[in-house]
Each structure stands twice: as C-alpha cells, then as structure tokens.
Amino acid sequence: MTETRPPDRLPAPDAEPVVRMTGVVRVHGEGTGAVHALRGVSLDVPAGELVAVMGPSGSGKSTLLNLAGGLDRPTEGSVVLEGRELRDLSQRRLAELRRRSAGYVFQDLNLIPSLTVAENVALPRELDGVRTAKARAEATAVLEEVGLADLGDRFPDDLSGGQRQRAAIARALVGRRRLLLADEPTGALDTRGGDEIIQVLRQRADAGAAVLLVTHEPRYAAWADRVVFLKDGQVADSSAAGMETAR
Amino acid sequence: MSVRHGLLALLSRGLRYGYQLRAEFEASTATTWPLNIGQVYTTLSRLERDGLVSRDDQGGQDGQDEQGRVRYAITSEGRDELDRWFAKPVSRADRPRDELVIKLAMAVTTPGVDVAAVIRAQRSATMRSLQELTRALRTLDASTEAAQRLVVDSMIFHAEAEQRWLDHCEAVLARPSEENP
Ligand SMILES: Nc1ncnc2c1ncn2[C@@H]1O[C@H](COP(=O)(O)OP(=O)(O)OP(=O)(O)O)[C@@H](O)[C@H]1O
Ligand SMILES: [Mg+2]
C-alpha cells in the first residue's frame, strides 16, 4: 500500500501544465461590501492529473474552478490556460479558447430537455463548427465511454439522476477537451452513482486530461492525485498521493 | 479483538499448521493486520490451555509429525466460543482508544499548542492514506476475495469518518472567537 505512482502517470517535470494559476486574487464588489473570494492562490493542473479541491462552504472552491476555466477573470494574478495568459485575451478570444479547451460539469446539469441525450452531447462540437455527422459520431463514442451507449436517443427527463449526470459529463468530454472542470458532480447521487462519475473522471485523467474536481466528499477526493484544501480563499494545505513531496 | 477468535475461525474450517494460520489470517485481512509467527504460537498455546484447541492426535509425540510440526484442531468448546463471538456485537468500549482523539483533546487544553496546525497536518496525512487505500482498492482485480475488499472498504470508511471529524473540529474551534470576542 506504499507503492508509488507508476512512472507513466508522472507528467514530465518541465511539461507545461494545462492550467497554471499564480497569485490569483478575486474580489467581488467594492469598498466595505467587498468579498475576498480568493486571496492569492497558486495552482498547477498538469495533463494526466486529477486534482480535487475541498474546503468549507464559501471558501472559494467554485470561484477557483470558474477562474481556472476562464469563466471569470481574476482581480489580480495570472491564469494561463494551454499556454495563453487569459488576461491578454479579448472576450471573443477567451470564449473561443474556453470552448475549445475546457469542458464543464456543473451541479445543475444544464442539459437541454428538448434535445436527445446524443444531441445534447454533440452540441458543443457543432458549436465548434464540426459537421453534424461527425459531431454525432463523436457523441456516440463518448457516450459509450461513460456507459450510456444505448441511451443516446432518450431525452434527459427519461434518464435516472446518475445517467443524467453521466450524460452531462459526456458533453463535457466530447471533442477531447484537455481540461475538465467539475463542481460537485457527484451532487445528490448515492455511493454507487457517485463512484461511477468519479471513475469516468479518473479514466479521463489517466488518458491525459487535466481534471479539476470540487467535492465535499473525502471518498471522492481520495481518487485524486492531489487534494487541495481551501480555507477563506487560501490554500490551507494539500496532499499528494504516493508522493511525500507535495508541490 | 482477537487474534484468538480469528484463529478459532480459521481452525473451524479444518486442521491447520501454525504457519498456515498465519498466512490465512493475513490473506483474509488483506495483509493490513500483520501477524508474526510468535504471536500465532503464543495464542495457540493459550487456546490449548483453555481447551479451545487441541493438537491433531494423528501425530506422534505431542502431536508432532515426522518433521516436528504440529497441526491444530478446534475443540467443541472452541466451536461454542466461536459461535458466541460471532453472535455478540463488538462493544465500542472494547476497542482501543484512538490516539488522535486524545491528542486533539490535549492540544485544545494545553497552552501554546497550535490546534489548527495539528488539525491541518492530520487532515493531510489522513487524506494521503485515504488516497492510498482508494488506489489499493482500484488495483484489486475482480478475482480478489470479498473478505479482502471489505477490509480495505472498512479502512476507507474509517479514514473518511476521521476526515469529517477533523473538519468538524476545525469548524467548532473556529466558532468561540466569534461568539465571545
Ligand atoms: N458574484 C458574487 N458576488 C459576490 N460575492 C460572491 C459572488 N460569487 C461568490 N461570492 C462569494 O465568494 C465567496 C466564495 O464563494 P464560492 O462560491 O467560491 O464558495 P464555495 O467554496 O464554492 O462554496 P460552496 O461549497 O458553498 O459551493 C463566498 O463568500 C461567496 O459569497
Ligand atoms: Mg461552490
């Protein structure tokens, strides 16, 4: 039980992380009403790594995730996504990079009820400008990966909670996005459903994606290569599996 | 507990040599409970003294075979004792005291100790073992015996509970400063 991480899973030491956050500060509002959601957080998420973020409610976990994926901009500090400093990008360029590089799974899954599961999953690729037939083929492949191969023609309302959640994950995975962001994706699921979700995220990390997962559940965080604890907008501590030297 | 009862349970399946008992005990606890052979023989001689096990009477002098090894058998008193053990729930008071609980209680009441730092350090360590256990479970293949999986599962649940308790401690300790400034 003291085995170290197999070498093929270790990112090359000088490989650039998919996301690099340096000294990130995020203040909501101004003056006396200002809320310091993040107070100087630095975090790298390299390819092939699953990083879990834990911490009490209000500690800044969702804020961190949104900043990492370019959904929000930092008040201070730098976020570099796939080598691009987000601060330097126009809104349009940022939206483009975001769409191309990152997949998001939020707790309120945002599946479109009037589209089938397969259409929901193919949608991001069609937005990427991929032809419908190709987008559908990609959707089918990724639905298979999450164990929903047979349910592509159903509508979201006709799935169980766990299946819906997996469909939302499939949508985040389609098009081989290199960064996967998941905010409490195991939400209200039972242990079994939660385990299924976490296994899919783990497989994606093992296949080379960078995965950032927010969770309250220690049992899911334990699947991560690294667990970062946030407190009052700062990294309180972190633990790396099988490595004594946490970065 | 009871290495005693563990050995009785193994012997209830048939005659065993001491070294077999050790190997089977470790296998069924997923090697999370290492046992040295000395412990096995000490326990066996106490069980023998109490009439719960006996030496296999097929052997020669003192039940030894040609190589001087002894096989042990469970007696009917031993079976009764085993039945009682399975039937009786484990009392929380019988379990060893948790050093972490004592440490935190002491940290809270000892002047000059940074309790928050104690909690943080423990939380990282507990999370690390939780990560290692999870990886161990992930790498168990499908043929692994259920007993072993359940042992690892138990340790995962335990580590998880400890993690929650540490969060709880942190939250509780953060409170008084707000209530009585
Ligand atoms: N748009 C906003 N305007 C003002 N304050 C905000 C805004 N978004 C977040 N905050 C505040 O920033 C802090 C961090 O919020 P965040 O959503 O990141 O917390 P969290 O760790 O995800 O919590 P939870 O576990 O409850 O989801 C909170 O105090 C929150 O109220
Ligand atoms: Mg949140």
Report on this structure:
Chain A has 247 residues and is an alpha/beta fold. Chain A has a single domain (20-77, 90-239), classed as 3-Layer(aba) Sandwich (Rossmann fold), CATH 3.40.50. Helices cover 31% and strands 25% of the residues of chain A. In chain A, the strands form two sheets. Chain A has a six-stranded mixed beta sheet with strand order 6-7-8-3-9-10, with helices on both faces. In chain A, a hairpin with a 6-residue loop joins strand 1 and strand 2. The longest helix of chain A has 16 residues, at 191-206. Chain A starts with 18 loop residues before the first strand and ends in a 7-residue tail after the last strand. The relative contact order of chain A is 0.19. The model of chain A is unreliable at 1-13 and 243-247 (pLDDT under 50). Chain B is mainly alpha-helical and 181 residues long. Chain B folds into two domains: 3-92, Winged helix-like DNA-binding domain superfamily/Winged helix DNA-binding domain (Arc Repressor Mutant, subunit A, Orthogonal Bundle); 96-174. Chain B has eight helices and three strands. Chain B has helices spanning 3-11, 18-28, 37-49, 76-87, 99-109, 115-139, 146-174, 176-179, and strands spanning 16-17, 53-55, 71-74. Chain B has a three-stranded antiparallel beta sheet with strand order 1-3-2. The mean pLDDT of chain B is 84. The A-B interface holds A 1-3, 56, 202, 218-219, 221-224, 227, 229, 236-242, 246 and B 32, 120-121, 123-125, 127-128, 130-136, 138, 156, 159-160, 163-164, 167, 171. The complex binds adenosine-5'-triphosphate and magnesium ion (MG). Adenosine-5'-triphosphate (ATP) is lined by residues 28-29, 35, 37, 55, 57-63 of chain A. The site of adenosine-5'-triphosphate has 12 residues of chain A, from strand 2 and helix 1.
